[in-house]
Design a protein that fits this description.
heterodimer; A: about 110 residues; mainly beta; 7-stranded mixed β-sheet; 11 strands; B: about 120 residues; 4-stranded antiparallel β-sheet; about 0% helix; globular
């Protein structure tokens, strides 16, 4: 099983500022990495797949990068609706696994 | 826009069987993978397994001995059965499109299931 580790667990950011979230895989997953956003009481929503491709309808302020074992999700200018929990997920292996999440909270 | 909706009991007794159904609307089962995923405070997001449109399945090894996922194509539904449940199976259960080396691009709203006597 590929273990996904996200950091930090909590990120305090002011609206309008940049947020940078990290995700590390226990072994290479190539570019087969996705990011999801989850708000309270809602299902996760796909933001990014293929490490850097935005899903349909996702604003350009969300960007992803990385390959192999190190990945980053950047939110260029946080809006009020962006405060949520973010998860990374690898789908390079037949057993998909998720990171523990990073909570982005208002500073 | 594909929509998924979970349905089933919200309370299951220990040692009994958890059964959920996911109905796919505004789209067909098509040539996709369909998965069940659960989320609990203790274990985060955990993939349970998938069923492919052909009917083939694959399961998380941690649950494989207790899980069955099946397709009902004519009804545009797929189902989850989890036997011999314990309190550790208490979670929000989601159905989603994806799995099998494919991202989860559509999710149901989730249904909470509590295992308690």
């Amino acid at each position: 099983e590929i273990v996904m580790t996200q950091s930090p667990a909590t990120l305090s950011v002011s609206p309008g500022e940049r947020a940078t979230l990290s995700c590390r895989a226990s072994q290479s997953v190539g570019g087969n990495l996705a990011w999801y956003q989850q708000k309270p009481g809602q299902a996760p929503r796909l933001l990014i797949y293929g490490s850097s491709t935005r899903a349909s309808g996702i604003p350009a302020r969300f960007s992803g990068s990385g390959s192999g074992t190190e990945f980053t999700l950047t939110i260029s200018s946080l809006q009020s609706e962006d405060f949520a929990v973010y998860y990374c997920q690898q789908y390079d292996n037949w057993l998909p696994t998720f990171g523990g999440g990073t909570k982005v909270e208002i500073k | 826009q594909v929509q998924l909706q979970e349905s089933g009991p919200g309370l299951v007794k220990p040692s009994e069987t958890l059964s959920l159904t996911c109905t796919v609307s505004s789209g067909s089962i098509g040539t996709y993978y369909w998965s069940w995923i659960r989320q609990s405070p203790g274990k985060g997001l955990e993939w349970i397994g998938y069923v492919y449109y052909s009917g083939s399945t694959d399961y998380n090894p941690s649950l494989k001995s207790r899980v069955t996922i099946a397709l009902a194509t004519s009804k545009n539904q797929f189902s989850l059965r989890l036997t011999s449940v314990t309190t550790a199976d208490t979670a929000v259960y989601y159905c989603a499109r994806g799995g099998g080396y494919v991202v989860f691009d559509y999710w149901g709203q989730g249904t909470p299931v509590t295992v308690s006597s």
